[in-house]
Amino acid sequence: MTVNKVDLAPLGNDKYQDLLEKVVAPGPAEEQPTPRGRGESLAWPRNWVEKSKKEMYIRQLKVERKLSLAASQLALEGQAKAKPKRKDKAKAKAKAQNRLKRPKAKVAAAQSQSHAGSHDVYAHSKPRVVAVKEAAKAQRPQRAPKNKDSSQHKVLQQTIQSNLECFLFLQQPEEAERFLLLCHRSPVKRRLLNANAYNIVMRIWARKGCLQRINRLFSKMESVGLQPSLDSYAAVLECMGRNQSCTKAVQRCIQQLKNDGFHVDELFQKCLFEEDEKEKVLRAIRIVQPNYQLPPPPSPQTCKSSLLRDFYSKEKMVSYPKLDFSVQELQERFQQQLEMELNNTITIESVESTKPLTPQAIKARKLLATLRSRWHDSILQALKKSKHSMSKLKTASGYNILYPYLCLLPDEEYVSIMLQILNTLSPQGESLAVLARELGLKVYNRYITQRKLRSRQLEKVQEVYEDYIHLLAKDSQPDEYLPREYWEKLVAEAGFGPSLNLKDCSWPYMLIMRLGMHMLELLVHAVKVPRNALNPHLEHKLIPVLYHIYSFRSSWQVGLIKPHPIFSQIVSEAAETLLTFNSSAMPMLCPPVPWTSPHFGAFVLNDTKLMRFVDGAIQHQLLLEQCPAVNLHPVLDALNQLGNCAWKINQPVLDIIISIFNDKGNEKLDIPPPISEAPRPPATPSNSSTMSKSQKHELLLYKKKTAEMHSLRMDALYKLSIANYVRDKVFWFPHNMDFRGRTYPCPPYFNHLGNDVTRAILLFAEGKPLGPKGLDWLKIHLINLTGLKKKNALQERLEYANEIMEEILDSADHPLTGRKWWMNTDEPWQALACCMEIAKASRSPDPAAYISHFPVHQDGSCNGLQHYAALGRDLIGAVSVNLMPCDVPQDVYSAVAQQVEEFRKKDAEQGVKIAQVLQGFISRKVVKQTVMTVVYGVTRYGGRLQMEKRLKEIDEFPEEYLWEASHYLVKQVFSGIKEMFSATRDIQNWLTESAKLIAQSGQTVEWVTPLGLPIVQPYYRSKSTVLNCSMQNLSVKSSNSSQKPDTVKQKNAFPPNFIHSLDSTHMMLTALHCLRQGMTFVSVHDCYWTHALTVDIMNQICRQQFVALHSEKILQDLSNFMLEKYCRPGSEARAPWQKKLMEQLSNVPKTGKFNLKKVMDSTYFFS
């Protein structure tokens, strides 16, 4: 779910809110929109709003009437089927209350049948919508039909459960039960309850040892046709274990559990426990089975992928590469990391702190400190007042939905979160939606941290981690395990205590937004500044620090929160030198926790998802959970390998960059200048209404430029300040991936995926000797960074480096005062860092023995087209993207430009005017971007815009022909690529057409990568939900799996996404095989990094794995998977669309004659 638009929407259009209030607040709700001030009136006429509200109300009444009619109809049918039921009503009730006291043998068979389908769902203890089918029809009371809008149903269901989880966390069983019964009593609300909701309340009573209350909830569950789950029985047994219940009671409970189709062992295999719950359940079982032992952990499974048979074979196992740290040192680093994560945030010195303090700055800082102290008190007071008024709503009639969420943390923490947002707000302001989301997520993340502490999960992680580091430390020798395998082994051996995964307690996205909006409203109303803070001559009047204004982004009206100029000026003059970051934004100070499942890995405490996805989207996570664990092993092991690479800072380069940053920056070297260097604002008349159109345009451009400069400057400040903070430390970047399997470091600001500046200041923490060819590789790498000899052979690049050795050494010795050769290269900062490394190595007594920490890169040659050419065995295409051995690198962009030029000549001879105009203008540069992006699905429209942009850059090109020329060129480029990459275009068309048919059938496109990673495209027709808030209505765009797929996006994105999933598979295979060779390896998508010593080995592995990957029947396997998934081969009666799709999927494109083995000898495949 993404906040794409924040607009003013008509009142009374919050479907989510209306239903939510029906669920939890039938009484007067505190969240009703307050009357707006003069400046906040809605853009619609009042009568229109009233009419809209009336229509909504009538529609709502109709829906409710339909629901109640359907419910009564179902009830009548139920009575018709079972007439004696009325007489037996009292009996049935008594029977239900005795449910736990004696087993029901007759019903057991039917119950176990009804549970068979949902049994596995409980293995993950995930909430489910109970659909009790045949057995339920025969013996359960009928339930109201489920809401048609299942996404809304899920959101409301999740909201109820997260509310109950809050009461569990706050240890308020009475409140939880009152809230549950509020929903239970109403037929409409009852449809939103599933077994999980009752289980949460049972768990609270279990901790208090109240078996009677749990029995009551069991009977309530049965009365609405819900089947108890394993978690229900775990709660009962935990309670019995706490109370040391009598043997008979425990015996009855275990018998009932078996009657419901479960086994006692499953309690320990599938349930997640917190604190001492596991021990109490075990104690209860041992009351009747004194010799009962915990079931042994499942024996580790081995991945069967043909691509990794060697990698996982036990005969070929080698020791995991060691870090240059002792066990003691790694334990100390773990404690530092843990302390940082427990604090949630970290405050560090900014790199601007070296500037001398002016008297003005000292004065401004004092003023700011005084104001912040006042703001703290006023926010705290406003929060307490708000909570007090919410708590008054706790009557029988209703409940304020946000109240429990404002009680999870101490009040001081909410205040510090709000002040943190205030301190980081830019002078240009920020959209309400972004700020609300940030505030809501900060509360959620701190709540998760507290839950991990409360559940004693953190203690368990600490114990396991202290043993785990023996695998990595240089002074210990465990057996040959991968990090994931070793961690799993240690967890299995730990046995007792809490589970390492928490029960799912995620909050619905709309709830996070709602909580954030409430906090934002408190902040805006509470924070004031004296009007005369900077000018004593003005009257002393308190004015708001934050203003709510509207702005237009494209055609949408967007709500912004903007700071008052007085506040911005005080902050600017104070020139504060402290920056506060979330702990998850920092590199880790110890090796990451290895990924062992989609829920667990990366940071010690911070919640990290294995797969990144847009807010509110859950389909990826569900897909990963349903995937057999063993299928994810290769992906998890690859992410662990990338995350275990230790880094350090290149201090000399960092110091030069900081000196330029603090001295007005340098745009040519990609170091943003400060705002003080912005162009002067254009002269404008005092009365804005008299401004001319050109003056308005000039002013707009000036504002845009200053906003851009501020954004770029802050981005650089964050990166450099974090780098400076870890300048003397060794650190790690935990990794996760996007939905296609492409990997990314988790810390967002400073990592090796950054720009030239960021990459230049990173070195491997582990050093390796250069070896006989290492210095040559450093020199070739330097020339690659300059971009000067792209078309030359490697030997020629090396010779060129030796020729300009004087320039290289001068750059290294006098970077800012010498001839500055390094500044005129494609990647100047990385080139400078490389010059310094070459200087040190060449001056050492024995360059081969010189210990180098420098990463050397090898880049794929138009990697997307390489995958296409290999898939289609496309001979001409393979040559042009360097899959074939050649003496010099082939340049696909030049080849396409040449092809287009030939088409142009023919057309010009036949008198085509535009072909004649284009004479002399077709170059590699003009076609490069379009050729590069064709593989990633660029359309003719997008290609034409790219061409137009390139032609505009040529001063001599006649402007009047731009549209016609770009239109002509894009057509020719597409034709040229079609001719050169004939099989590529066939494959692209086949993928596109298949995706189109799948999406038109109302399904999303799914596939599985050759490494076993399941992928689903998350493109749905988005739907706006309007959130009514007192400040303004937020229109929050959501796209989730209950909505129809977006056919156009599903179709257009499939080819590029499929290719991205292949390039990530190739990278992961290379990473895993490099690990087996004990090498350092990291990647930036299709750019692979290692030490100079191991470049040759990495090159060999990279080629071997590309050949192995494309030797698989990739397209045939894709076709088989999709036929199985979308066309169900067994079914006789097929819909016409299924027949058409079957035909399409079965018609796999033919391949060409290219011999894939040739890649092994191609020098320029990756170079």
Automatic annotation (TrEMBL):
Gene3D superfamilies: 1.10.287.280, 5' to 3' exonuclease, C-terminal subdomain, DNA-directed RNA polymerase, N-terminal domain, Tetratricopeptide repeat domain. Residues 335-644 form the DNA-directed RNA polymerase N-terminal domain. Residues 82-105 have a biased composition (Basic residues). Its EC number is 2.7.7.6. The keyword Transferase applies. PPR repeats lie at residues 194-228. It catalyses: RNA(n) + a ribonucleoside 5'-triphosphate = RNA(n+1) + diphosphate. Pfam families: PPR_3 (PF13812), RNA_pol (PF00940), RPOL_N (PF14700). Residues 78-123, 133-152, 670-693 are annotated as: Disordered. Residues 671-684 have a biased composition (Pro residues). GO terms for biological process: mitochondrial transcription. GO terms for cellular component: mitochondrial DNA-directed RNA polymerase complex. Belongs to the phage and mitochondrial RNA polymerase family. DNA-dependent RNA polymerase catalyzes the transcription of mitochondrial DNA into RNA using the four ribonucleoside triphosphates as substrates. Component of the mitochondrial transcription initiation complex, composed at least of TFB2M, TFAM and POLRMT that is required for basal transcription of mitochondrial DNA. In this complex, TFAM recruits POLRMT to a specific promoter whereas TFB2M induces structural changes in POLRMT to enable promoter opening and trapping of the DNA non-template strand. Has DNA primase activity. DNA-dependent RNA polymerase catalyzes the transcription of DNA into RNA using the four ribonucleoside triphosphates as substrates. This is DNA-directed RNA polymerase.
